Amino acid sequence: MEGHEKDFLGQMDARVGHWLQTPDPDYESDNQIESDSFFDGWLLRRMSHNAIFDVGGVLVDESLLDVRFACVPERCSPKVERGKFKSCCADLTVYLTTRERKRLNKYRKPLAKYMLAREPRLEKRIKGKKKKKKFWLDGDGDAFARPKKRCVFSLIDSEGRIRCHLHNFAAKNGIEQTDIQPVTCRLFPLILVDLEDGRVLVTAMNKDNYKAWGGKHPKFFPCLSDPELPPVIESMGPTLDWLFGEGFAAELSQAGALHRQEKADAEKALASEVEGD
After folding, report:
1. Do the bridges between strand 52-55 and strand 154-156 make them parallel or antiparallel, or are there none, so unpaired?
2. Of the segments 18-32, 75-89, 121-135, 253-267, which one has the largest average pLDDT value?
3. What is the pLDDT of residues 194-229, one digit of tens each?
């Protein structure tokens, strides 16, 4: 693993640090135990293949360099003919930490007014006989509700594309995005893992690791299955910089190229030694 002088890990957003250390509500379920077991094996394989490198204290999975991603809401929206495709805004469960629930609750009244004017499907949840003050929560109170089979805060625009009301609400009211939008939503398809002892690993959902997160194969997501899309470290560059500080995405790209070159040189040198013997 290559060392880098700049401390990017020390710049990690404090809200993300808290989120990382908060277990999902189903962390003791059989499915979660199975996912954790898969993750342990996956991480061991990545380390044994020298596929983890260091960028300013942040551990990076080499596969992050290969993942292609861009948001393509015109392909995955429930309002379009999407076939087998899934949408992160319609088909995935988003759990909320206690702090994320509190941050949302600060905006409960203006959010209710905003959503009521834009989402008729939420009328009963917001002002009906069985109205809910925290209309965005599911029955268990630990995740976003999904009325009509999509996220409570999802928006279907005039062209049938799926978007995010929270993102728009934050922009309209001058609210910093993470003060209202869950970390999970900001990260997709990036994955952050707390490895304990102060170590943090960043990767992205791909065909080799999706079982570790209890997710679906990337082939079911149009934003992850098109080789013509841009590299995720470019399309999610601003998010990577938000996570670990300005310049992290660029440093990651350079460090990744160096890591791969050093691996190739080492393999070439080893092959020459074998031939010499």
Report:
1. unpaired
2. 253-267
3. 998 889 999 999 999 999 988 889 999 999 999 999
- With beta carbons less than 8 A apart as the criterion, state whether 192 and 201 touch: yes
3-state SS of the chain is: CCCCCCCCHHHCCHHHHHHHCCCCCCCCCHHHHHHHHHHHHHHHHHHHCCCEEEECCEEEEHHHHCCECCCCHHHHCCCCCCCCCCCHHHHCCCECCHHHHHHHHCCHHHHHHHHHCCCHHHHHHHHCCCCCCCCCECCCCCEECCHHHCCCCEEECCCCCEEEHHHHHHHHHCCCHHHCCCHHHHHCCEEEEEEECCEEEEEECCCCCHHHHCCCCHHHCCCCCCCCCCEHHHHCHHHHHHHHCCCHHHHHHHHHHHHHHHHHHHHHHHHHHHHHC
Cis upstream peptide for 238 (omega within 30°): no
Q: Give just the sign of the alpha carbon dihedral 64, 65, 67, 68.
A: positive
pLDDT in tens, 70-123: 999 989 888 777 788 889 998 899 999 999 999 999 999 999 999 999 999 999
Evaluate whether 188 touches 88 at the Cβ level (below 8 Å). yes
